[in-house]
C-alpha cells in the first residue's frame, strides 16, 4: 500500500516581486523586475513577456520595455518570510523549511482535528493571502518530491493534490526537467539520448541511467522517475550552509576586483561562523557567467575551521582554477557558501602553536566590529573600495 497524500509543499509565487506589488499598490497588475543589472525576480506579468530570473537587465528591458524596475529590499522579504513561516508552524509542528519562500509540511496526523490534507492546504493558502497579502501555491502528495512537482505544476496561485492512485498518470507525461535535480546540463544529456519525459526515463534500467548521467545523479533521478522517494519531512535539520553572493552586472571584471569581492564575502561569512560558534569544513564557489550558465566548485578540509585566512585561501584557489572560464565567458555573479557546518565545541581544540597572526587578527577585528560597527574596520585590501551590495544566496526558482 502506498499510503496517503499527506505531505504539503508550499511555495510563494514570484516572491520578491509579489512583495513589491503588495507594498506598492500602483505596481499591481504591472510587469515588475527586481534588480537592475541582473534580474533577481520577475512578476508573472513580466514572465509572460519572457523575462526570467538571472537574465541581464538590458535584455529584460528589451523584452519588456514598460517594466517597472525596483531595487531589492531584503529586509522586507525576510519579514514577509517570517510571517508566512509563522502560519506554517501554526498549521503543523512538522515543518521543514527549504528556503526563504518554501517549505514542506507533514499534516498526516491532523485529519481528526483539522480536516483532510486538501482542506488544510486550502486553509493555509487563504491565511497567507489574508494575513500576509501574498499568493502561495501548494502541492499535496504522498512524497516530498511529488508534492514539490505538484506545487510547481499548480503555479501561479494554485492547489494540486496528487492522490496515490494517480501518481503515475500525473508524473510520467511530464518533461524530465520537472524531476528534482535535473537542470539544464542533465536535461541536455537526456535529450541527446532521446529521453524527454519522465516516463521515458522510468522505462530505462537504473544501470543505464547511471551510465548516461553518472552513478549518483543517474541513480537519484531514475529513482524519482519510478516514484521512489522515501525521505520524510525533516523538522530537526539544522542549517547545512551559510552563504553570500554579489551580482556584478554586465561588463569586464579584473582579477583584482574579483579578489576584492571574494575577500569581502569570505570575511563576512567567517565572522558569521564565529558569531554563531560554528565551524565549517567545505568552501563552495558559485559563479554565473556572461552567458548566464552557472558553475559550482568546492574544496574540503580534513578538519573544520572558522579562520578567515584558511577559508580565504581555499576560496582564492577555487577562483584561480576558474579564471580561464571567467576570462573566456565573462562573469555576472560570484558567491561563496560555507557548508558541512558543525558546533565549535565538536572540533578538537588546536594547540597554541597552531594559532598564528591571522587567527589573532580575526579576534581583534571581531572585537572592534562588535564595539564600533561592522564598517568600522577593514582588511588592507578593502580600503578605499566601493562596497556595492551583497545578498544572501537564495534559490533562483521563482
Automatic annotation (TrEMBL):
- Record-annotated active site: 102
Location comes to: Cytoplasm
Q: Which residue numbers mark the site Substrate discrimination?
A: 16
Identify the InterPro entries for this entry.
Answer: DNA/RNA_pol_sf, DNA_pol_Y-fam_lit_finger_sf, DNA_pol_Y-fam_little_finger, DNA_polymerase-Y, DNApol_IV, PolY_HhH_motif, Rev_trsase/Diguanyl_cyclase, UmuC
Assigned EC number: 2.7.7.7
Q: Which GO terms describe its cellular component?
A: cytosol
UniProt keyword annotations, A-Z: Cytoplasm, DNA damage, DNA repair, DNA replication, DNA-binding, DNA-directed DNA polymerase, Magnesium, Metal-binding, Mutator protein, Nucleotidyltransferase, Transferase
Which Gene Ontology molecular-function terms are recorded? Answer: damaged DNA binding; DNA-directed DNA polymerase activity; magnesium ion binding
**Pfam families, per database record:** IMS, IMS_C, IMS_HHH
Cofactor note as given: Binds 2 magnesium ions per subunit.
Keyword DNA damage in annotation:
yes
Q: Which cofactor does it need?
A: Mg(2+)
- Give every UmuC domain span: 7-183
Q: Which residues bind Mg(2+)?
A: 11, 101
Which reaction is catalysed here? Answer: DNA(n) + a 2'-deoxyribonucleoside 5'-triphosphate = DNA(n+1) + diphosphate
Q: Which GO terms describe its biological process?
A: DNA repair; DNA-templated DNA replication; error-prone translesion synthesis; SOS response
Q: Could you list the residue ranges forming a coiled coil in this record?
A: none
Enzyme class, spelled out = transferase
* Quaternary structure and interacting proteins, as annotated: Monomer.
Q: What does this protein do?
A: Poorly processive, error-prone DNA polymerase involved in untargeted mutagenesis. Copies undamaged DNA at stalled replication forks, which arise in vivo from mismatched or misaligned primer ends. These misaligned primers can be extended by PolIV. Exhibits no 3'-5' exonuclease (proofreading) activity. May be involved in translesional synthesis, in conjunction with the beta clamp from PolIII.
So what family is this one in? Belongs to the DNA polymerase type-Y family.
Q: Which NCBIfam families match?
A: PRK02406.1, PRK03858.1
Q: What is this protein called?
A: DNA polymerase IV
Q: Which organism is it from?
A: Microbacterium saperdae
Amino acid at each position: 500500500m502506498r499510503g496517503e497524500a499527506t505531505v504539503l509543499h508550499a511555495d510563494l509565487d514570484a516572491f520578491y516581486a509579489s512583495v513589491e506589488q503588495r507594498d506598492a499598490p500602483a505596481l499591481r497588475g504591472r510587469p515588475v523586475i527586481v534588480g537592475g543589472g541582473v534580474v533577481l525576480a520577475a512578476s508573472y506579468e513580466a514572465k509572460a513577456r519572457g523575462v526570467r530570473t538571472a537574465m541581464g537587465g538590458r535584455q529584460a528591458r528589451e523584452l519588456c520595455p514598460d517594466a517597472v524596475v525596483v531595487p531589492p529590499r531584503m529586509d522586507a522579504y525576510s519579514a514577509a518570510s517570517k510571517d508566512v513561516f509563522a502560519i506554517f508552524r501554526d498549521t503543523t509542528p512538522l515543518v521543514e523549511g527549504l528556503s526563504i519562500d518554501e517549505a514542506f509540511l507533514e499534516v498526516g496526523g491532523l485529519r481528526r482535528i483539522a480536516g483532510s490534507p486538501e482542506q488544510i492546504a486550502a486553509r493555509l493558502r487563504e491565511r497567507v493571502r489574508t494575513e500576509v497579502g501574498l499568493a502561495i501555491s501548494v502541492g499535496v502528495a504522498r512524497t516530498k518530491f511529488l508534492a514539490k512537482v505538484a506545487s510547481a505544476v499548480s503555479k501561479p496561485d494554485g492547489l494540486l493534490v496528487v492522490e496515490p492512485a494517480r501518481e503515475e498518470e500525473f508524473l510520467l507525461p511530464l518533461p524530465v526537467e520537472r524531476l528534482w535535480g535535473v537542470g539544464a546540463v542533465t536535461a541536455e544529456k537526456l535529450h541527446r539520448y532521446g529521453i524527454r519525459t519522465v516516463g521515458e526515463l522510468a522505462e530505462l534500467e537504473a544501470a543505464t541511467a547511471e551510465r548516461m548521467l553518472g552513478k549518483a545523479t543517474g541513480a537519484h533521478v531514475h529513482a524519482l522517475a519510478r516514484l521512489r522517494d522515501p525521505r520524510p519531512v525533516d523538522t530537526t535539520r539544522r542549517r547545512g550552509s551559510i552563504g553570500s553572493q554579489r551580482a556584478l552586472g554586465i561588463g569586464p571584471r579584473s582579477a583584482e576586483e574579483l579578489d576584492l569581492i571574494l575577500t569581502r564575502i569570505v570575511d563576512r561569512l567567517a565572522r558569521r561562523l564565529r558569531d554563531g560558534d560554528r565551524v565549517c569544513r567545505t568552501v563552495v564557489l558559485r559563479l554565473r557567467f556572461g552567458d548566464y550558465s552557472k558553475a559550482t566548485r568546492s574544496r574540503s578540509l580534513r578538519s573544520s575551521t572558522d579562520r578567515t585566512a584558511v577559508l580565504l585561501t581555499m576560496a582564492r584557489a577555487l577562483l584561480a582554477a576558474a579564471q580561464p572560464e571567467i576570462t573566456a565567458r565573462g562573469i555576472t555573479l560570484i558567491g561563496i557558501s560555507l557548508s558541512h557546518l558543525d558546533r565549535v565545541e565538536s572540533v578538537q581544540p588546536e594547540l597554541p602553536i597552531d594559532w598564528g597572526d591571522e587567527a589573532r587578527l580575526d579576534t581583534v577585528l571581531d572585537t572592534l566590529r562588535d564595539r564600533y560597527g561592522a564598517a568600522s574596520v577593514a582588511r588592507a585590501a578593502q580600503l578605499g573600495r566601493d562596497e556595492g551590495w551583497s545578498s544572501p544566496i537564495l534559490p533562483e526558482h521563482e
